[in-house]
TrEMBL record:
<keyword id="KW-0472">Membrane</keyword>
<feature type="transmembrane region" description="Helical">
    <location>
        <begin position="170"/>
        <end position="190"/>
    </location>
</feature>
<dbReference type="InterPro" id="IPR003439">
    <property type="entry name" value="ABC_transporter-like_ATP-bd"/>
</dbReference>
<dbReference type="Pfam" id="PF00664">
    <property type="entry name" value="ABC_membrane"/>
</dbReference>
<dbReference type="InterPro" id="IPR036640">
    <property type="entry name" value="ABC1_TM_sf"/>
</dbReference>
<feature type="transmembrane region" description="Helical">
    <location>
        <begin position="262"/>
        <end position="280"/>
    </location>
</feature>
<keyword id="KW-0067">ATP-binding</keyword>
<dbReference type="InterPro" id="IPR027417">
    <property type="entry name" value="P-loop_NTPase"/>
</dbReference>
<dbReference type="GO" id="GO:0005524">
    <property type="term" value="F:ATP binding"/>
</dbReference>
<keyword id="KW-0812">Transmembrane</keyword>
<feature type="domain" description="ABC transporter">
    <location>
        <begin position="354"/>
        <end position="590"/>
    </location>
</feature>
<dbReference type="InterPro" id="IPR039421">
    <property type="entry name" value="Type_1_exporter"/>
</dbReference>
<dbReference type="InterPro" id="IPR003593">
    <property type="entry name" value="AAA+_ATPase"/>
</dbReference>
<dbReference type="InterPro" id="IPR017871">
    <property type="entry name" value="ABC_transporter-like_CS"/>
</dbReference>
<keyword id="KW-0547">Nucleotide-binding</keyword>
<feature type="transmembrane region" description="Helical">
    <location>
        <begin position="21"/>
        <end position="44"/>
    </location>
</feature>
<protein>
    <submittedName>
        <fullName>ABC transporter ATP-binding protein</fullName>
    </submittedName>
</protein>
Amino acid sequence: MSIIRLYIKDLFKFSGWLLPLNLFGMVIASLLEGIGILMLIPMISVSGVITGKESNFFAPYLGFVDIFPEGSELFFLLCLFILIMIAQSLLQRGIAILNVKLLHEFSRDLRIKLFRETLRSDWSFFIRKRKSDLINSLTSELARVISGINLVLQLITSIVFTLIQVILAFWLSASITGFVLLCGAVMILFSKKFINRARKVGNKTSLFGQEYLAGMSDQFNGIKDIKSNTLENSQLSWFSSLTHKMVGEQIEYVKLQSNSELYYKITSSVFIAIIIYFSITAFQAQFEQLLAIILIFSRLWPRFTGIQSTIQNIASTIPAFESVHHLYKECLSSSELRDYQDDGIEPYKLKSSIVSNNICFKYKNSGSNDVLKSINAKIRANQMTAIVGSSGAGKSTFIDILMGLMKPDHGELLIDGGPLNDERLTAWRKSISYVPQDSFLFNASIRENLTMVHPNAKEPDLWQALKFSSAAEFVRKLPEGLDTHIGDRGVRLSGGERQRLVLARAILRNPSILVLDEATSALDSENERKIQEALEGLKGKMTIIVIAHRLSTIRNADQVIVLEEGRIVQAGGFHELASQKSGQFGRLLGNQLEAIQ
Ligand SMILES: Nc1ncnc2c1ncn2[C@@H]1O[C@H](COP(=O)(O)OP(=O)(O)OP(=O)(O)O)[C@@H](O)[C@H]1O
């Protein structure tokens, strides 16, 4: 429960004076409710059902009836009762609305905080995490946390109401109320096991939720493979077995709830029987006292059981609180932009060079050797540098370090002579446009996909960028041109068209550094040639870093860096390296020429 205390503290901090005001309103509302109930006594007394004024038990509470005119006490008492109940209901309504408002605003704040910290986390965090787990935490688990907070608010309300009722009940009969409280304490003692089991079921809910979402996103990401390899049945059997387990978990929860209800009902009836028995035999209670016992019991007991089952429901949300809190903490410790606001920071303009000074890097989750081993390289501003090497050589890892997505374990990255530290990171990132092989497009129009990086871009700017990436022609031919919707991840376009569109988007940002990671791999040779020419035109204005397996793509590169097993084995001009037939680059080039012939 300590995790919930943490969130409630936050809620108090967030609400300012609103929550204390609400609590005060609750005290008044429950006082009014208690008074309304207590008014039953004079009403019954005045109606003549019992001879209250003569009764020893009720006599002290009936004096005020004398202020009403003789003969119309009942009428005035009923009017007073209605007024009190109306005031109580209005107050309760106000409290409920305020509670909901508070809950939703606090939830929104929680969502924003978690999403912001997730976005601020560094690249290694995203490498470690399963995307579906992040989505699960930010959607289902967060929703469970919010419902848990709602339950806590309900619990606070119930406790306040109950306390006031207890005070009023004590005033009416201390001995009977004491006995009821004792019964309540005994019940709470035995209900601990229900709370623990609710927490365990809650754990299962979290795990199944995570598994469900992870499975679904894998299925739909790989739907083409599933369909083309007729894997539908095996996927369906996975789904059927998981949903079977989920049904079991739901039934377990309902069983737990009904068991605890059964327990409360049986103990209630046993306690009521004991109280009535002892009231009559031991305390020799009169009819009015019995009425008071029933009145107090019928008011307090449902509150006890209500509190009990709310605590049980809260316990089942604890795993969600823990998972969201754990994610939040993890994001904070992986935050790369903690103290540096994004707003107003201008992109960095590279002037002379990027230098990799003895850089070593190893992925934390892999027990293997360094992926990058003492990388020393210089990338000159406004030139085209190509990074080549066989698969797994470390090209993408090196690029990630150049972009400041990951920090080297040893060595440093110097930008125009100065180290790339946290303070320069945002400006550095803003200066880069990165185009990966599996580039991302949103399920929106072409125009929206382009303007997301440059909201103020005018129509001619969009066409210029499209022309650069040889995409203008095919966009013009689309039925709705720039306003054509391209489907999920651009599914309505071909692979090459998607790449050209992403390239246009990258250029639209007018970056200081353009990074292309296998960005033209899906293009036909005609379009590839056009893009090469366009890139050639950018030389002198922009620093271009290209990773390419197809070596014909980098023919115009000013410098080629050849990586092999995490080391630089060659570096120099394209033609210079191509002429060294025994070198690694010469071999790679030779292999490709052979494949063409
Ligand atoms: N997230 C990761 N966790 C652990 N190891 C990784 C991770 N990403 C890459 N690696 C390992 O690091 C090495 C270099 O990978 P990298 O992606 O940088 O190579 P690459 O030269 O870009 O390969 P390719 O041309 O196939 O894209 C590989 O051995 C790979 O298995």
